[in-house]
Amino acid sequence: MEVELVRKAVEARAKAYVPYSRFAVGAALLSKDGRIFTGCNVENASYGLTVCAERVALFKAISEGAREFLALAVACGEGPCAPCGACRQVLYEFSPHLVIIMADGEGKNWCTMKLPDLLPRAFGPNDLQK
Ligand code: THU
Q1: Residue 92 resides in a domain
Q2: Which one from 54, 68, 78, 93 is the annotated catalytic residue?
Q3: 1: which residues sit within 8 A by CB, 6+ positions away?
Q4: Which domain holds residue 77?
């Protein structure tokens, strides 16, 4: 499972639109029903409108009806890199126990962590029930 997700994240990374940072990122998200959704970062001349690879993958998945996820692989840079804080928060909304596989841009090395360790004491949907 990990190998397949990393491979798909690396593949998605090749599609990144990154004329400004030149920092290409790819992501692959596994839903509970077995589908894999991919994403790449999409930059914009108005820099702040850039969307990260992880959120592109997640929003594609949500728009296709998936709601629960098991694991996400992200591929970028020289060494394994972790999703940014904004992406952690957005992923937490749907899958607070998500497994995050962090790989380098070529998918040669990776390490795995769980979302609660990357975003401890998170604010989420349950907090709004209080
Ligand atoms: N980026 C991602 O796609 N995911 C992350 O988790 C970190 C940052 C993108 C945004 C921007 O296009 C480039 O990497 C440099 O920040």
Answers
A1: yes
A2: 54
A3: 30, 71
A4: 2-119
Q: Is residue 75 part of a domain?
A: yes
68 is annotated as an active-site residue: no
| Structure-token pair, residue 91 | 């992923």
Give domain status of residue 128, yes or no.
no
Q: Whose CA is nearest to atom 9 of ligand 1?
A: 52
* Whether the CB of 41 sits within 6 Å of ligand 1: yes
Q: Taking a C-beta distance cutoff of 8 angstroms, is the pair 68, 30 a contact?
A: no
% of the chain surpassing 90 pLDDT: 95
- Whether 130 shows a pLDDT value over 90: the answer reads no
In a domain, 18, yes or no: yes
Residue 47: is its pLDDT beyond 80?
A: yes
Residue having the nearest C-alpha atom to atom 10 of ligand 1: 52
pTM here is 0.97
Q: How many domains are there within the chain?
A: 1
Contacts of residue 61, Cβ cutoff 8 Å, sequence gap at least 6 = 29, 31, 35, 37, 69
Q: CB of 56 closer than 6 A to ligand 1?
A: no
pLDDT value, residue 103: 98
CATH of the domain at 90: 3.40.140.10
